[in-house]
Every structure is written in structure tokens, then in C-alpha cells.
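User: Teach me something about this protein's shape.
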Amino acid sequence: MFAEVIINTNVKSLNKIFDYIVPKDMEKKVKIGARVYVPFGKGSKIEDGFVVNIKKESAFTKDLKEIARVEDISILDDDKINLAKLMARKYFCNISDCMRLMLQPGTSSKDEDKRVKEKKGKFIFLKKSMMK
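Assistant: First, the predicted structure itself:
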């Protein structure tokens, strides 16, 4: 199984779809719209990207790398991915830039520890007595 991934970058020359091998243990987690972390480039630096398609065969079987990690939550769906592609064509920008606009605020960082987390609060309420 192979995944077509768009790398999350501003570089115009990387505005392409790259094929990656989906490891057997990740086949159920990898879905269209999922954020994945993949080795990219000669140094195999880990970059984040978004899965835009899943297929059974790839034309680029030589030197394909495996997906390193996948997030449990699928962020984007088919409609948002198609909208991002349409926006990229219309406004002459990267598809990943358009996809980044659809993310929740505070979730664009690669490092999960630096992302904004859901706020929790502790409250104390005083009950007013109805005595006269």
C-alpha cells in the first residue's frame, strides 16, 4: 500500500505529490487527510505532510521510503483537500499553504509538545442561600 503525501513546506519547487510506503502496522491509521511524518531529502530529515490519496501500486517503486509516524487524528477530509487544490490553482500558491489554512489554530507546529492544547479550568461555585 502506498500513500501520496504533500510535504508541508513553503518551497514552490516542492509543490508536488510524493509517494511513500505505508508500513503494515500503520495501514489502519493512514487515511486521506491524516498528518504524517516522513523522511525527506538526502539526509532523511523528518518532515510533516498530509496524505492526499492512498493507492495499491506506485510507478516509483525504486528508492521509496516508509512513513515514519502518523497522527491518530485525521485533520482534513476529501472536500478540504479538493478545496485546497482549487485554491492553489486559483491563487498560484502551494497546496500545503492552503491546507495549513484549514488547520485549527495552534496545530501547525511539527512538535506536538509546542502545540496549543485544549484549555482546562477548575471552578468553584458558591451556592446562594435562600434564607430570609
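Now, about its shape. Residues 69 and 75 are 15 Å apart (CA to CA). The two ends are 74 Å apart (CA to CA). If you'd like, I can walk through any region in more detail.
User: That's plenty for now, thanks!
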